[in-house]
Amino acid sequence: MNKNYCSANIFSFCGTIVLSLVFFFSTATAAELKFVTQDFPPFNYEVDGVVSGPAADIINATCRELGISCSFDLLPWSRAQLYTKIGKAHAMFVIGWNEERAKWLHFSSAIIETEYGFFVRDDNPLAFKNTADVKGYSVGVYGPSNTSHSLEMVKAKIEDITIHIISDDKVAFKLLSSGRIDAVYSNREVGKALVKKMGLKNIRYAGCHRKLKYYIGFSKKFTDPKLVERFNATLLKLQQQGKIEAILRTYQMGATEDQRENP
With CB atoms 3.0 to 4.6 Å apart as the test, which of 129, 150, 209, 253 could cross-link to 248 if both were Cys? Predict the structure, then answer.
């Protein structure tokens, strides 16, 4: 056999192994997670082109601790969900849990605790305690969404309630302010932020219907499950160290029960 030929092939083979190892270690150490979200103040919003808010801060803190790169895009919610479904993004936030989403998403541990409830005009004396309190009401709600699904649960109990599903939260609150509907069913923090931003002086929060938690949802199809496990383990560690609660305090938001149990 020609020795030069043999040496050339060995060199080529060794070179291939070296390049393969370089590629393997570069991809293993340069992991990246792409996140998408929507304009959803006070939880998610954009400041000078940068996705900001408590959820983004929590994700950034987790990525730094994990030693991976994370990027964010703020999109219309329908597009954010589509990007996660087709693999243009690994995860979306913040979201509530439901059975349909659980079919295609891995959920993080809860990162933010909040609530759904009713907003009314100041001239309405409602102090919401139970579903019968809104019997006969005409209620606006953003949807289709987890929020509108929750309001449908109210309707299933008392029936005598008219639901107006509206694709823009601002429109719902304008209708309430002008007296064209009796109430808006909304996330408490989102509703208060909108009322303040819109300068609506005649609207108040009338009470909580149900508590809920918000999560990060990772695509089961397009995200490495081991990376998701590492992310969630790191997030849990930061929660147990009290670092997530500290982030939430800067936004005047409360910790979840899990975070309070593991200070």
Answer: 253
In tens digits, the chain (263 residues) has pLDDT values of 554 444 445 444 444 444 444 333 333 334 799 999 999 999 999 999 999 999 999 999 999 999 999 999 999 999 999 999 999 999 999 999 989 999 999 999 999 999 999 999 999 999 999 999 999 999 999 998 889 999 999 999 998 999 999 999 999 999 999 999 999 999 999 999 999 999 999 999 999 999 999 999 999 999 999 999 999 999 999 999 999 999 999 998 865 555 444 33
Task: Write out the H or E segment, with its range, that includes residue 246.
Answer: helix 243-249
The span from the CA of 217 to the CA of 113, in Å, is: 16
CA distances from 93 to 14, 57, 223, 254 (A): 45, 12, 15, 18
Same CATH fold assignment for domains 32-113+213-261 and 115-212? yes
Residue 186 pairs in a beta bridge with 117
- Comparing CA positions, the residue from 243, 235, 233, 234 lying closest to residue 263 is 243
Select 115-212's CATH number: 3.40.190.10, 3.40.50.300, 3.40.630.30, 3.30.230.80.
3.40.190.10
User: What is the fold of 32-113+213-261?
Assistant: D-Maltodextrin-Binding Protein; domain 2 (3.40.190)
Q: How far apart are CA 205 and CA 176, in angstroms?
A: 12
- Tally Cβ neighbours within 10 Å of residue 152: 15
Q: Alpha carbon of 160 to those of 121, 135, 139: distances in Å?
A: 20, 6, 11
